[in-house]
Amino acid sequence: MRLFQQSLIAATALFIAGSAFADCDKPQLPEIPDGSTASQESMLQGQKAVKQYLQEGDAYLKCLEQENKAALATAKESGVEPDSEAARQLQAESEARVQEHNATVDAMHNVGNQFNQAVKSFKAANQ
User: Fold this and answer.
1) Which burial class, exposed, middle or buried, applies to 61 when counting CB atoms under 10 A from its CB (0-12, 13-18, 19+)?
2) What does 34-64 look like in DSSP terms, one character per residue?
3) pLDDT tens string 3-61
4) Of 45, 91, 99, 115, which one has the greatest count of Cβ atoms within 10 A?
5) Average model confidence (pLDDT) for the chain?
6) Confidence at residue 9, expressed as pLDDT on a 0 to 100 scale
7) CA of 67: how far to CAs of 9, 10, 22, 47, 97, in Å?
8) How far apart are CA 127 and CA 119, in angstroms?
9) Residue 113 to residues 2, 108, 116, Cα–Cα distance (Å)
10) What does pTM read for this prediction?
11) Do residues 111 and 32 touch, judged by C-beta distance below 8 A?
């Protein structure tokens, strides 16, 4: 009976942890204008899109962090045994969230760098 209860607790913790990760909305990459040929209006629209992307990215990162904390708290409250398969699965999901977090931060930096390069190209083309 105890094994059944532990299995049920572990399955519940995994379900909550797995479904919680899906609650975060990953932002879509914005379209960066070609600064060497873009109009000023196009550059301003690009700037607006980049700012929105970065704001949505920040919200996504916070969501991932909150979901990770919630999943770990659920596991702790559920009494998941540290050496169990459920604990290993939760650890793998936690690591996946961290990797997603890091990849999103990298993407946000790349978008910022790409737009900064587009601005430099725009200024050079319109002097």
Assistant:
1) middle
2) -TTT--HHHHHHHHHHHHHHHHHHHHHHHHH
3) 444 444 444 444 444 444 568 999 999 999 999 999 999 999 999 999 999 999 999 99
4) 115
5) 85
6) 44
7) 19, 17, 9, 30, 9
8) 12
9) 55, 9, 5
10) 0.78
11) yes
